[in-house]
Automatic annotation (TrEMBL):
Keywords: ATP-binding, Coiled coil, Cytoplasm, Cytoskeleton, Microtubule, Motor protein, Nucleotide-binding. Residues 1-13, 104-115 have a biased composition (Polar residues). InterPro entries: Kinesin-like_fam, Kinesin_motor_CS, Kinesin_motor_dom, Kinesin_motor_dom_sf, P-loop_NTPase. This is Kinesin-like protein. Its main location: cytoplasm. GO terms for cellular component: microtubule; microtubule associated complex. It is found in: Cytoplasm, Cytoskeleton. ATP binds at residues 205-212. Residues 64-75, 92-101 have a biased composition (Low complexity). It comes from Danaus plexippus plexippus. Residues 554-581 form a coiled coil. It holds the Pfam family Kinesin.
């Protein structure tokens, strides 16, 4: 197994987060599969930890091709998000246990065909508690939670009607970080990332509404190197722990994890794991192969242990741009994207197949009313850039959610939307966590966020599994061969053609594709792989030809059968005519008949009238 067996059960987990142990070099199995242009770089974090990373010219392009609507052993059937009614919102007293079961269903059906059905973006809302400042000025609470994923916003002016919104789940102010892990649906995303899907969880909302708190906890917690089991840790650390649990549950698979962490600051993409002295921005490019945007030359860290993922998070959190304004002392001044790529190598039958899943955690900078945040100078410039990119995001969401409009979606108008394009309307699985504040002074921003979130709920994506082109080809050819063999067998049986089945396959004249074991397939040189693919293609063609011939024979037989039955009908009709003539004649005996049902001579031809006839003749 490329990945070292993780030790993550809450009781047995060993956590070395603050130790200065260097990360392990990438396993040799991985080295072979990386592009030759990749170079290994070593960076040292501020706490002295080595981040050994591979800088690949095009991380996305090296990832192989897409397989739509196909299945491989172990891929999950896509399950629709639960409807609103089945997911109760978290109550103030902390009850909410019934939701776990309904979300967990998504992991079932692991042998079913992978559907390419559309999937709605899952939208949950988290309401932060009233803070000390708001409490000190006795700010009014504007929100009510009637349950069933609903939020009621009281009218801000007298006589104004309350507005009701509904979502998949609503986390009330009393909800804990653990509740968000359990009931937001993030576990499903992680499970799907392990299965090969591209998944994204992003937090959206106004400044100070709790986005960073939801993802990484209170300010400074991650950087302080707190235990991974600290109650305040956000979704990211909790997801890392859950991810390693999932990997441990698949001992038959090889996993390779790679992580990257970037921020979009003033419309420039910066590498948070390799900030360098000059903070040179990275380019966002379009990949023709994967048909998505990617960041060129992004630092990617091989993560063999849970500890490695924590180091990546900690380093990125130290390097991200944070500022202060009147609404948030630790305000994110950039959008950040933390990505963990999960490569899974699995052997099923004779095929070794690799899937490339991904989980992105996106912490968006909050929208700001610059008047309220009293922004000036640098903070004002940051706020303008943040608001501009969020406006483009909002426009894309509005366009995508309107099923009637099929027009242009302006992804290219900002770096943020370029990088989120695939999550919003592409081939990914997406969770949006809309963060809001409950107080009256934030009312209009809260309404805006709730409207955004309601729109996002209507967006559909079409999740697909990413596989290596070679694996995808061999897998699909083998499936086709199997389907054709089954058809062949069926046709031969129907036509009573002799079939010699030897346990491995049917005895065939020209077919002799070698059965290569899973391990051997992996070690085969390129030339032999090409030969194997060619053999499969030849076998395919031969089976197709034979099946076509069998179909022709079957059609001929069907035609003959039809002719025969017509002839039968004609003869029967003739017999009827003869019989009717006979019954009309007093001297000719009537047609033969079956003997009475139930008599001992059932189904034996008798001629009831023949005895009568003999009587008649004797009488005459
Ligand atoms: N659910 C919560 N429980 C307790 N404290 C919270 C909660 N949500 C937010 N806070 C606190 O409120 C403050 C602001 O939250 P946070 O920095 O996460 O907001 P933000 O939406 O990320 O803001 P910005 O967009 O400006 O970065 C922080 O001190 C945070 O710890």
């Amino acid at each position: 197994m490329a990945l070292r067996s993780p030790q993550v059960s809450s009781s047995s987990m060993v956590y070395h987060h603050r130790q200065n142990t260097p990360m392990r070099a990438p396993p040799t199995a991985l080295m072979r599969n990386l592009s030759k242009s990749a170079e290994t770089l070593v960076a040292t974090t501020r706490c002295g930890k080595e981040l050994k990373a591979r800088k690949v010219r095009s991380t996305e392009q090296a990832e192989g091709s897409l397989v739509k609507g196909s299945s491989s052993g172990g891929l999950p059937m896509l399950v629709k998000w639960e409807d609103n009614d089945s997911l109760k919102s978290r109550s103030r007293n902390g009850s909410g246990s019934s939701r776990a079961a309904s979300l967990d269903r998504s992991t079932q059906g692991s042998n079913s065909a992978l559907s390419s059905e559309e999937d709605n973006i899952n939208v949950v809302v988290r309401v932060r508690p009233v803070n000390d400042k708001e409490r000190s000025i006795r700010e009014q609470n504007m929100l009510e939670f009637p349950g069933k994923g609903q939020i009621v916003c009281q009218g801000s002016a007298p006589g104004q009607k309350p507005k009701v919104f509904s979502y998949n789940v609503v986390f009330e102010p009393a909800a804990t970080q653990e509740d968000v892990l359990e009931y937001s649906g993030i576990k499903r995303l992680l499970e799907m990332a392990v299965q090969g899907f591209s998944c994204t969880a992003f937090c959206y909302g106004q400044t100070g509404s709790g986005k960073t708190h939801t993802l990484t906890g209170p300010p400074g917690l991650v950087e302080s190197g707190a235990s991974p089991f600290a109650a305040d840790h956000g979704l990211v650390v909790r997801s890392f722990v859950y991810l390693f649990q999932l990997l441990r549950d698949h001992p038959d698979c090889h996993f390779v994890l790679k992580a990257s962490f970037l921020e979009i600051y003033n419309e420039k993409v910066m590498d948070l794991l390799n900030p360098g002295t000059s903070r040179k921005p990275l380019q966002v490019r379009w990949s023709k192969d994967s048909r998505s945007f990617y960041v060129e030359n992004l630092f990617t860290v091989d993560c063999e242990q849970l500890d490695d993922l924590f180091a990546v998070l900690e380093e990125g959190m130290r390097n991200r741009s944070v500022g202060s304004h009147s609404m948030n002392a630790h305000s994110s001044r950039s959008h950040t994207v933390l990505s963990v790529r999960v490569r899974r190598d699995e052997s099923s039958r004779d095929v070794r197949c690799s899937t490339h899943g991904k989980i992105n955690f996106v912490d968006l900078a909050g929208s700001e009313m610059t008047k309220r945040t009293n922004s000036t100078g640098k903070t004002l410039e940051e706020a303008n850039n943040i608001n501009r990119s969020l406006m483009v995001l909002g426009y894309c969401i509005a366009q995508l959610s309107d099923g009637r409009k099929k027009g242009h979606i302006p992804y290219r108008d900002s770096k943020l939307t370029k990088l989120l394009a695939d999550s919003l309307a592409g081939n990914g699985v997406t969770l949006m966590i809309a963060c809001i504040s409950p107080t009256k002074s934030n009312f209009s921003e809260t309404l805006n966020t709730l409207r955004y979130a309601a729109r996002a709920k209507k967006i559909k994506t079409k999740p697909i599994v990413k596989m290596d082109a070679r694996d995808a080809l061999i897998l699909s050819l083998q499936r086709e061969v199997q389907a054709l063999q089954a058809e062949n067998m069926h046709l031969r049986t129907a036509l009573h053609v002799q079939v010699d089945y030897d346990g491995e396959g049917y005895s065939r004249r020209n077919r002799g594709t070698p059965q290569v074991s899973a391990n051997k397939l992996y070690t085969l040189p390129q030339t032999e792989l090409v030969e194997l693919v060619q053999l499969h293609m030849e076998e395919n063609t031969a089976l197709r030809q034979e099946n076509t011939e069998l179909f022709v024979v079957r059609d001929q037989l069907l035609r003959e059968q039809e002719l025969l039955s017509r002839e039968n009908e004609r003869l029967l009709k003739k017999l009827e005519d003869v019989n009717s003539v006979c019954t009309r004649s007093p001297i000719i005996p009537a047609r033969p008949a079956y003997s009475d049902v139930g008599s001992n001579d059932a189904n034996i031809w008798t001629n009831r009238t023949s005895s009568t006839n003999s009587v008649i003749s004797s009488n005459s």
